[in-house]
Each structure stands twice: as structure tokens, then as C-alpha cells.
Design brief:
Blueprint (H helix, E strand, L loop, with lengths): L3 H10 L24 H60 L2
Helix pairs in contact: 1-2
Length: 99
Amino acid sequence: MLTTDQKETILRRAGVAVPAFPAFPSRRPSDQQHQSDAEPILKGRMLADGRQKAVEQWARTIDALFVEYSAARAARSLRDAEEARQLGALRHAAGGSTA
């Protein structure tokens, strides 16, 4: 099974526009000196939760794009195989009628 990073690489190489991995602002020290000890911990947890949700959304988007890409590629392969089969049958019929 492919990882999300591998799927992203395949999509990029195939020329599919993929969203960039979520960028996160760096943590800045608080301007308030009188914060309680719990506030930075809670803010850190909220920031981590937001990062996790953004990464999960990015992964879902990549997965959906990869499914679409795979389905289109499979359909194209089937069309090409059918076209080759039909050309082979025409060549066979044309070669058989001249004999």
C-alpha cells in the first residue's frame, strides 16, 4: 500500500496539481507576562489539534486525487487495450480477405 507521500509524488510527476503540505506558523512567545501555567499548555494543545486536522484534510485530499487519477489511468488503459484489439481484428480480417 502506498503512503500519502508516495501518492503525492506520483500525482506531481503525472502533472496533477496537488495542494501543498500544510504550513504552520511558528509559536511566538506570549506578550502577556501574567499568564497562568495552564494557558500555554492549552494553547499548545489547540495548536497541535489544528495542525493534526489540517494534515488529515490534506491527506484526504491527496487520497481523493489519487483515486481519481488511478481510475482515469485504468480507463485509459482499457480504452487503449480495446483499440489495440480492434486494430488487430481489422488487420487479421484484411489479411485474411486477400488470400
